[in-house]
Amino acid sequence: MTALFALATSLLWGLADFGGGLLTRRAPALTVVVVSQSIAAVVLGAVVVATGGWSEAGPRLWFAVAAGLVGPVALLSFYKALALGPMGVVSPLAALGVAVPVSVGLVLGERPGFVQFAGIAVAVVGVVLAGGPQLRGAPVQRRAVLLTLVAALGFGTVFVLITEASTTVTGLFLALFVQRVINVATGGAALYVAVRRGAPALPEGGLALASLPAYGLIGLGDVAANGTYAVAAQHGPVTVAAVLASLYPVVTALAARGFLRERLRAVQAAGAGLALLGTLLLATG
After folding, report:
1. Residue 80 and residue 32: Cα distance in Å, rounded?
2. How far is CA 183 from the centre of its chain?
3. Which of 91, 145, 153, 181 is most buried (most C-beta within 10 Å)?
4. Phi/psi zone of residue 136: left (φ > 0), alpha (ψ -120 to 50 degrees), beta?
């Protein structure tokens, strides 16, 4: 179950990141964050009411609040980095956030076997190579790297916090809802400040209603990924769940290949193969 849900997390995050990167090239990053997370919050609110999730309210929700404060910073940094590009820098480096939950798991006493340790090493190397790392170039690229490292730290922290925010399915719905409400409040405040300083709040031509489904898919994909990761981490070793969930750059690279016709370089193909090998070692170790 851990492997299945963690791999589902990679798929969902990979597609959401690809879509978020595309939208951020057309609209301000803060707007993408606020609109997508607002749609997700509305849907989650309906789910919480329908499932009676309010009965799960308790002290653990403070972890969701903390995740909601960290999440917008990570998303904003990530989307800005994606807009600066290239995705070959941003996507694999963002996966380095896996170091946070893996470190927490090791501190808490988790000790994967030799095969799983080998799988972790192979998978992480594969993830980095799958993006086709391009770390040389203009100052804009260095800024993209810095933003991506901030995003990676934030994503890894959210991994840890959202896992601790609930122990039941209905509680998870409530935790994700609280996280999204805080996301919207924090992102909305940052957007207000940015607009006061003269930054545009909407893309050129305004926010078309036809684009709202795209924003919704991104927000809901991010929510679903948080949920599947929490389930994966609660039913198995965090070290394994975190590494498998970090394979989303492979999905992003494949999406770019399929939709944008971006050609995979040899290093990316090799990285995808190593990531797959690492996945198999983790799942069978």
Report:
1. 10
2. 14
3. 91
4. beta
